Amino acid sequence: MMISFMSCILGLLGLALAVGGTKLAMLGGSLYYVITGVALLVTALLMFRRKAAALWLYAAIVVGTLAWAVWEVGFDWWQLAPRGGILVLIALILCLPVFRRGLGERSEVGAPRAASVLPVAAASVVSILVAGYSLFQEPSRIIGELPTEKLTTEANTGNPMEDGEWHQYGRSNYGQRWSPLEQITPTNVADLEPAWEYQTGDVKRPDDVGETTYQVTPLKVGESLYVCTPHNIAISIDAKTGKENWRFDANSGMNPDRQHQTCRGVTYWQSPEVTPAAATPTAQDDPATEDQAPADQPQDDQPQDDTAQRAAIAAECPRRVYLPTADARLIALNADTGEVCSSFADDGTLHLEQGMEYNPEGYYYSTSPPVAVDGKLIIGGAVNDNFSTKSQSGVIRAFDIDTGELLWNWDSGNPEDTTPIDIEGGERYTTNSPNSWSVFSADEELGLVYIPTGNQVPDQLGMNRTPEVEARSSAIVALDIGTGQEQWIRQTVHHDLWDMDVPAQPVLIDLTRDGQTVPALVGPTKQGDIWILDRRTGEPLSPRDELPAAPSKIPGENAAPTQPISALTFRPDRLTGANMWGGTMIDQMMCRIQFQGLDYEGQYTPPSLNGTIVYPGNFGTFNWGSVAVDPERQVMFGMPTYLPFTSRLVPASEIPPKGADEKASEQGLNRNEGADYGVFMGPFLSPLGVPCTAPPWGFVAGADLNSESVVWKHKNGTIRDMTPLPLKVKLGVPGIGGPMITRGGVAFLGAAVDDYLRAYDLTTGDQLWETRLPAGGQSTPMTYEQDGEQYVVIVAGGHGSVGTKPGDYIMAYKLP
User: Fold this and answer.
1) Do residues 584 and 17 lie in contact, with contact meaning Cβ atoms separated by under 8 Å?
2) Which residue in the list 402, 499, 501, 755 is annotated as catalytic?
3) Which of 501, 555, 589, 626 is spaced 20 to 30 Å from 53 by Cα?
4) Mean pLDDT, the chain, as a whole number?
């Protein structure tokens, strides 16, 4: 009975491999599966007929598979396991006495003679030994140490502030995500313990869109922290105790057409004549008469005809928090009380939808905090990807920080004229021009603000882009802070057809090159390039290349013949069939069939009707979390992620009507109303729902910014929260979020799809500490000092698109 049952198992397995392997071979893929499938069918027949030769043939299959697997992927356990796991398990079962006796033969005198299981036993032992050896190998790992020497003793961190403060999204307008605090070090970070925990009360709702996320980085000014929540509640928290000081609900409502329901942070500003307030000011405090202290930014070139309004808001709100909302508003709040600053703009509110030719509700909003610099608020906005060709403009605008008056507008569809448009006279911004949804950086000394741009909707179709739009898509653009005029453009993708918008805040740092100090910009991109530019001119500090790229198969589409690549890059190698993965050899074969059936000619394969592999995928190698840099050691810490997507163009005539309960999403069918094609997109997954590419999918990495080289790279994160069983296996998992580093030599990062906050040695990348979070930590941590103690804070609320646990937590840690 057991032998008959095993015959059926081998027959079914062989049939699956033979049928699937034949299809794969016809597509030009590996012949292994069809050969092994046929061999298993023969083995099943021999076993059904009780022939001892079945064991010999099966042993040959196991040994042959082992040799083929090692030849294809080397000694990588996670790639060897799906190729041979099932076969080795069956080999071990075949060593049982029932098979030895049942497959035996009778001697000439009729006595039973047991079959030898030595062949399958030997094959099993060899396979297990190879697997054991492979378990201790890590082919993807780069081992090294970042330089520890401080190349400068007076690091330029941007706008000045106390060491223990964190005034902007990336700490300063330079976006370095580096703190000069050094109480926490590699030797004591393992002693961190909870200091306080706060819950905002703003949790994910049943009617929320899929990408409802907590991505906020708190600000720390004086004795208060300032945060926002996905549904646009601004909250002030006592930095020492975690107690709430005040909250303000913008009541931005719900809209199923919003693609994102998130808030990455608020913007802080103080009038020049005041100092930061304590967490709970008393009634007799008169902020307008406090001792003068340096402001974050000077304000010395403002018009003189609005003195009364300026004086009014300075008296009403000497310290302000600006809150962007999901219904396209920017609200000014008193940082001490949470009250609306009614003297600003229209009773405290800027309406960002003004000047748009088309204004479909839910298609436009700001998910990132504006830059506050030189008395101006400079802000962009997110435009829904791939919804309609009649969407809002991606215009960048500068408003007077006191009055809300529009000072200039830079519209990538009409970039030359930055004079404020006459909205009352009927002037409008360019419809559907490339937007900038991420965080800006600013160098006030150079008078430049740095804008990471996206591309024009539809992301995957470029036939109707104007020369103005084409030149400014998926680029880093430097604008004059005073006028909005372009100073330089560095495009990171030509004629972007892959949604490879520049997603991250450019990081500003002064580098030491040939004994000279060079004001530089570090620009992470989705495709894995790290552009290191002279931030005065936009020129790369090291030579760059243009690599050949594939042509488009869509009539009228002219894909760029070459694409740029930077000197420092984390781009993945080109995919091959050998890179395909799965939980078993069956779904791995299915991934190989998908791979061979899709269009793929390298990283920049244009979208097609057949379907295209986009790798790195839409989440990118780097995303809005950017990277962290140490301005003294001039090194970088980042979290490269590798997860392919697929995109398939769908003719407009084949797109079904929109469902009444359909919610906005970047995955699935993107309708592109008004265009010739929609696009169906999503992660490249096996039938079991696991990525079709082999792990690791996520890393932490360190780079030397002067040599522009990757020094170390280690897989990061476990599958603890990816499977029904709580298996804490360090596989190297995807992540979305950002890092933070300190002068103490410690880097902090949540972001991975398991619910942990981790600390790393900046020099080596070794993990030093971790703590379990109550929800997904897809945000960027920050650090501050209060009453002589250093705190580390992360917001843990999950990320809808990656499926981590939702919540509403703000967690703080400090040393005992």
Assistant:
1) no
2) 499
3) 589
4) 92
